[in-house]
């Protein structure tokens, strides 16, 4: 068995435990700091909304094989800035695939659009047929944003109702929603800080990560419900049982996360280095950041927050007090709770007892030739089973006299 598999077995059995619930204030502080940085990105740099949301003109220039490089991007960007067009705003020029360069500007008039198209063709050194132009209005982006918000609202309502109905616990719904909001804020904040363009593919990725984060949280909550079903029998507090649930699902969460993040990371790397801008890059970035945040929130935020809310219930407080009293009794008398013998139980010597050779006399005997065992007090024995005292039999005066014998019934009473 590998070390990782052995560690997973120890975590599941409770022999090794990471105190996630006990350090909840540390996780709250870390999450608050990350969320504060993300909010600062939304307020300061703000989101780089794509042309689909703000409207504008998009040019696509088809270049010969191998010429759509950074030098061509720089030449076209300088040509757009030198065209002296007032409404061009802050143009965005980047590669799109191996043979295309994309240019995006703010909305232009037909005359300004023609003037800018001629400048791009001259800077790129291509024919007029190699450039395409597309006018995009902001109304379509507004419709996408509105429908995304409606879909998000419906999703959150269904999530609350589903978790409440499945677990019979509204506090789990609240904890899951807080974890989802945590993931969305961090993902959107990363977009604002990195300057990545927000496109409809970004909205699709953000909606996708909600399901992934919720899935991991529900798995942990299901184990929490199983461990806290009968706290009186397990002699654990609610926090201890919930923390055990996190440790029991930790290895599974790590394996699932690695399997999910590796292909997304590969897509992100390929889309940034080779493909350039496009829907693939926007989708992969939102998925990667959202999945990583979802793994963190399901372990460090959702379950500790659930325990924080449950510990205020009178029933949970009474069960925790009973478990603590049980723990105190075990600490007072450690030998009152001896585990039952099993074949796999290791044989250990008592601490502080030195091994002595087994005595040759009839006194103490040794078990296994290692530890001496005292004879102890004699027990009750029947006739014929009493052990010999070991002393020689002394001569008595009655030894020479004839001893009475028991006559048969037929001879009794006769002289």
TrEMBL record:
Organism lineage string: Bacteria, Bacillati, Actinomycetota, Actinomycetes, Propionibacteriales
Organism: uncultured Nocardioidaceae bacterium
Gene: secF
Cellular component GO terms, alphabetical: plasma membrane
Function: Part of the Sec protein translocase complex. Interacts with the SecYEG preprotein conducting channel. SecDF uses the proton motive force (PMF) to complete protein translocation after the ATP-dependent function of SecA.
Listed name of the protein: Protein-export membrane protein SecF
Principal localisation: membrane
Tree of life domain: Bacteria
Membrane topology classification: Multi-pass membrane protein
Protein transport found in the keyword field: yes
NCBIfam families according to UniProt: 2A0604s01 (TIGR00916), transloc_SecF (TIGR00966)
